[in-house]
Design brief:
With 318 residues, the chain is an alpha+beta fold. It has helices spanning 3-7, 24-34, 39-42, 44-49, 59-74, 165-169, 185-196, 208-212, and strands at 18-21, 78-86, 96-109, 112-122, 132-138, 178-179, 253-262, 273-286, 289-301, 307-317. A hairpin with a 2-residue loop joins strand 8 (273-286) and strand 9. Helix 2 (24-34) packs antiparallel against helix 7.
């Protein structure tokens, strides 16, 4: 029996809960590391103008909480291979958020042993705010990550209520590659501090000596880390198909969720190159009326030519 078979948890095994009562101290710390001082998260007036009763927290912070719960559970025995989520409800001041997770399947891909988990973030009322799935790869010897599925691009889309020919014209056209600033060890530490607040971050995400004993042999960034935060030329809301955070129909924006596959970890000193492409655009009728869904894909690689991350993000306008 291989080491990975020995350590791979059985179906039904649960993650330890990861809970936070969130408010501005949590959101400000996260905004500071992710350059996310967006009006609807900071100003009651702006949130109400966007149709919400109060300011609300970042969906990406809940993603960070789920990654933290997975990191603690894996405990250096493997890594997160893929993650996807949807955002079903907003996080208002004083909400108690609790990450839960359970192994639902064992899998094998590219000769590697994986566990498939269902995850979520429930609030104090028991409402599911962020349903998610994740794959964890278990290391048997030197760390290795499974491959990424082949990409696809929507074709044959026709204009609709909010979907216009200009947006359709961006499908499949990559934007110019953008390089990050060099990643610093303190960028990694501060990210971990913001996610784990008010607890201290785990030692392997802060202490160089402890991290050197881990499977990657050194300090590496949490998988949800954003190396483009505070980059002067990085503004994902300004991609040519994006429509800002307006108040008129067709420009009221929501974060619809994301899907990500992970490769090589991000290390101090790395410079990440990102190529972004609009890969899908479609409309659906929902509780908010006509809703426009835009899916963009970002492919990240490092200066060594290693694939770091492939992410698909869904933005909704209504």
């Amino acid at each position: 029996m291989s080491t990975s078979e020995c350590i791979r948890p059985a179906q039904g095994v649960s993650l330890a809960p990861f809970s936070r009562v969130t408010d501005l101290p949590h959101w400000n710390r996260y905004a500071a590391v992710n350059d996310e001082f967006i009006d609807v998260h900071m100003s009651v007036e702006a949130a109400r103008a966007a149709g919400q009763p109060d300011i609300f927290g970042m969906g990406n912070l809940r993603v960070g909480y789920q990654h933290a719960a997975l990191h603690r559970w894996i405990d250096g025995r493997g890594d997160i291979a893929s993650y996807s989520c949807q955002f079903r409800a907003l996080n208002f001041p004083g909400d108690e958020l609790t990450v839960w997770g359970q192994v639902v399947e064992s899998a094998e891909r590219d000769g590697l042993q994986l566990s498939v988990l269902e995850l979520g973030v429930r609030n104090q009322d028991g409402a599911e705010t962020t349903p998610a799935t994740a794959e964890v790869v278990w290391f048997d010897g030197p760390p290795a990550m499974p491959g990424v599925p082949a990409p696809s691009v929507d074709t044959g889309r026709a204009p609709g209520v909010y979907l216009d020919p200009e947006t359709i014209g961006w499908l499949g056209r990559p934007l110019p590659v953008l390089e990050s600033l060099p990643v610093d060890a303190n960028d990694i530490r501060r990210w971990a501090q913001a996610i784990w607040y008010p607890e201290p971050p785990p030692a392997d995400q802060f202490d160089i000596a402890v991290a050197a004993l881990g499977p990657w042999g050194g300090l590496v960034a949490p998988r949800d880390f954003n190396p483009y935060a505070w980059h002067p030329d990085f503004h994902p809301e300004a991609y040519p198909w994006m429509r800002g955070m307006g108040t008129e129909p067709g420009r009221r924006g929501l974060n619809g969720g994301q899907r990500t596959w992970y490769g090589a970890p991000i290390r101090p000193g790395d410079v990440i190159s990102s190529e972004v492409t609009l890969v899908s655009a479609y409309e659906k009728e929902g509780r908010l009326g006509t809703m426009l869904f835009l899916v963009d894909r970002a492919v990240w690689s490092n200066q060594r030519g290693e694939l770091v991350r492939t992410s698909e993000r869904t933005t909704i306008y209504h």
